[in-house]
Amino acid sequence: MSGVPPPSAPRRVRPVATALRQGLSRGPLWIGGLLIGFIGAVALLSLVWTPLPPGKLQIVQKLKPPLAQGLLGTDHLGRDVASMLMVGAWNSLSIAVLAVAMGAFAGTLLGVAAAARRGWFEAIAMRANDVIFAVPPILSAMMLGALLGTGRFTAIIAISVFMVPVFARVTASAARQVWSRDYVQAARGAGKGGIRITIDHVLPNIANQIIVQATIQLGLAILTEAGLSFLGLGMAPPAPTWGRMLADAQTYLGRAPWLAILPGLAIALTVLGFNMLGDGLRDLLDPRERSR
Amino acid sequence: MIETPLLDIRDLSRDYAGGGPFTGRHVTRALDAVSMTVQRGTIHGIVGESGCGKSTLARLVMALDRPTSGRVLFEGEDLFALPARALKRRRRDFQMVFQDPFGSLDPRQTVGRIVAEPLHVLDGKPGRAECRDRVAAMLEAVGLSADHAARYPHAFSGGQRQRIAIARALITEPKLVVADEAVSALDLSVQAQVLNLLMDLRDRRGVTILFITHNLAVVDAVADRVGVMYRGRLVESGPAQAVFARPLHPYTRLLAEAEPDVTRFGRPDRAPLTVSTAIDLDVGCSFRNRCPLAVARCSTERPDLRVLRDGADMPDRQTACHRAEVLLETETAG
Amino acid sequence: MDEPLLRIEDLAIFIDGPDGGRQAIVADMALTLAAGETLGIVGESGSGKSLLSLAVMGLLPAAVHATGRILLEGRNLLAMGDDALCSVRGRRIGMIFQEPLTALNPAMTVGDQIAEGMVIQQGLSWRAARQEAIVLLDRVRMPDAARLSKTYPHALSGGQRQRVGIAIALAMKPALMIADEPTTALDVTVQAEVLDILDDLRRDAGMALILVSHDLGVIARMCARTLVLYAGRRMEEGATRDVLTKPLNPYTRGLLRAVPRRQPEGGRLQTIPGTVPSFAARPAGCCFSDRCPDRIDACHADEPPWTRATPGRGVRCIRAHGERAP
Fold it and tell me: Is the ipTM of this complex over 0.95?
């Protein structure tokens, strides 16, 4: 997509200091990428293989610490924690990715439309955003849950609704900047309308910002999903999720702290991974924007 | 028989509403009843300082904005009376070149796509191969090579980018190109190349160019006719050579004297006048507070563009100054 | 012999490349400037003229390094620590920027911005400094100085902002004023006023002035001496009138011919073919050898040395002396 030509300068031996500096500046990208890559791989693996079926109850083996029974121990019903975490990764990631994708799609649509139309349309769209933004996702999940019943679908909708204004704002302000550029004036002068200009000029020029924003919002979506299932508003009980694992672990905090620590760690690492990846992507994509 | 001018601008005005919630609303008149005609196959210069309305004029001629009042007749056809679809079809006949060679090309598109952009709007949209051929021919016509089409804008220097912008403006073979400060951002050694290119396009392709700039020397070098603008009004017009050789408006003279010149060393003797007092712009001549010739009449009666009474040796020249005859005498005496 | 106000010797400025290498943007730079003298530095984009003035100010960006010596009143600025440099920058050298709006703080009244330096550097009270600021605004011919000193930069016109910029630089009573394209963003009539103000102040205060510009006409109007830069090299130096009427270097000649002026019978303007090379893509040998109409084979071989034609007149061109008679 991007057409940066190879640097015209002759390549020279890279001094250690510069290599180190570049390595450091790319650090977040690598660490974030590795974390998310690992968690994503585990989530995919859970679809075909887990050490034990995650729902298999072995009451006699309950509350065994890590390595005593299975890799990461067992919970109060004797289920294998490692297997539950793996399936939980899939559940969390799939919900987060779908929710962010839907939110990003709707928000971007709204944002570029607002930037293209301006005037009253922009004013109404952006005020509507503010209203949606003011409703916490937990609340909308409760309302949706009452309406549709709890489950994967409800969680996705609740989180994506919350994402819409975030993306709408980011895209609207980025798109407005593109609209003020002379190349858009040239396109108008050539007779192109708002939709054509949005597709040909606006979207390609704000794609980077949307990608970076989506990555960072994935972290937030993971957190929100965990919060929803912690409160019992997420996926229905037999399916393991990180949030409910945390909720179940509360009762046994004194006896089996790993039950809380392990899913907590999984959530923390995933959020951290997405944030670092987002920051790294921003650094990677932005300087090229600026050096024209 | 008098030929219809390519561009006929009649009493064109554009107001902008300004002011915030605390300062109260007020209206700024960016363009004030400007009338002029542009003949086919000429380079028509518009010169003036920032805020004189020259960019507003460009946007209106390009139909990128609507006037508050007045008309823009393109080959006798009122652009703002056309239905949207007809206007879109008409756009192939007038294209624009912008000032900033870095902001006017989409950094995410190849040069080929950029140059071909206006073609996509044509009714009988040419096919892919024909598009490619026309882009290649056009790139060569502006002094680039056909294989530049595959590259992205950042691989080019400012002067080359401006050539790309000119190629885009010419791809539909328009009758009029509006060039708004098209060479102002370029280095001196490159600026002359682009100016020559514009003159070649006029001579070889018969393109009419509305050349808008703040730089007198540049207009003098390329323009056939020139209009001088001040605070939204046209204050002088005529053949470029005559206007700069013998200004008939004190503002044109002030501009010419202020223009730095490589053959004038040290400070000029005449100290330039500074803006003295704020004046009521709704009445009288808007230049009177900077004008060395201003008299009482200038603050009560607005001067309109007129032909000088004893201007027999100055055909085709107009000035909006009550005191132009005095200027003519001092000029001849000095 | 007296030490000149400013002496630059063997200055080279490097930038860290994206691949870790270092590339010289400016090389073999040298100049001297006596107290009260005016020097014009002419160059197109990529000539290194702005980097040169930033180097003198000690304001080079982090990825850029300078070697050589920049001596101000005998003290090497390149060997100085940040604190010492800061006080030199404030007290001895003043700088005026191209776009005054970005050089001014939007959240501070212009009077306070002028006063700030005097409070910090000269230990004046704010009250006294604000009074002094009004005097300075008056000296840069700002109408209604007392009222305007209490306004914010956004309320001023471009010409007024540049006057504020000059007043800020002037407040420190510098011995050297560096103006980097000070009037490029201004209209011609305003430009003439600002240039006159600068010229008057320079005369009254006995300041030396370095005026960096791409506009030969501005240099002709303001400066006694001129230094022509191209692609980070000195091409020619001398009295402004000599350089602009009897140029020795083909680049200066080309530049002068390219100045737009009406040609007889619709003739075309003279041009310099090609474009200014980026610093990473300079031709071998002389940096102008790819565009020069007078080039010979030897021009592509080695970078020509800086030679002195007559006292006060220098040129970098192996063809300069043979070409002098037109």
Answer: no
